[in-house]
TrEMBL record:
GO cellular component, one term: plasma membrane
GO molecular function, one term: phosphorelay sensor kinase activity
Region spans: Disordered: 228-247
Keywords: Kinase, Transferase
Parts forming coiled coils: none
Keyword flag Thylakoid: no
Catalytic reaction equation(s): ATP + protein L-histidine = ADP + protein N-phospho-L-histidine
Xref: InterPro entries: HATPase_C_sf, HATPase_dom, His_kinase_dom, HisK_dim/P_dom, HisK_dim/P_sf
Protein name as it appears in the record: histidine kinase
Domain Histidine kinase span(s) in chain numbering: 28-247
Lineage, uppermost ranks: Bacteria, Pseudomonadati, Pseudomonadota, Alphaproteobacteria, Caulobacterales
SUPFAM superfamilies named in the record: ATPase domain of HSP90 chaperone/DNA topoisomerase II/histidine kinase, Homodimeric domain of signal transducing histidine kinase
Amino acid sequence: MDKQSAALTPSACSLPESDFGKRAFMRMVSHELRTPLNSIIGFAEVLTHELYGPLGAPQYTEYAGIIRDSGKKLLSLFNDVLELVRLESEPGLLRPEIETIPPHIHDAARRHAACAKARGVNILPGLTDAELSGRFDPRGLGLCLDHLISNAIDFTPEGRDVEITARPDGDFVDIAIFNPGKAPDPAEIPRLMRPFEQGAGDYNRSREGAGLGWSIVKLASEAMGGGFSVQSDPSNGLKATVRLKRR
């Protein structure tokens, strides 16, 4: 009984407030939540495609598809929360080095090509210098690009383009992702940089999400020695820019 009581003391309950506690928390939830979630998604996929024979009624495959898609959304949210905690609690998580930028942008564009096509949107990497380099961590830059491209696809009207550029600016390189369509009021940008914040009005209703993307991009950009900024014009669209050091 004493041991059980000790486990519920305030100091024990506040473990995630320390870096050690956050890392222990991540290890625990990574095993206890991610593993069963992957199982749910995998078995729902099997049922959706009726790999072992017909389920007997079309509703069953429909429901299995809903379970699969809901599981994927939950897993995505879970991964984002873990990423946010890691970026906040592990200062040396990202290790930037000087690398060529365009190959990483093209890789990110390919990762999102199927999703963009399904929504009738084009991704246009307008890169003029194939050898442009900067100081970044490949995983960190990938995180930034994945969140920003996904966000841009969600808000780009059908038949329009998501544009990606990378240009030097003095001692820095600016990687910008522009999407036409809906964009938040510029006054809302500082608030939307905080975790779990959502846009107002039509901008909020345009997509599902927990509001972690910009927070993750901001933390990752700063961890690589750069920064993150957003320019928004509600009538024309939004430009999100990741700034990297050149050296």
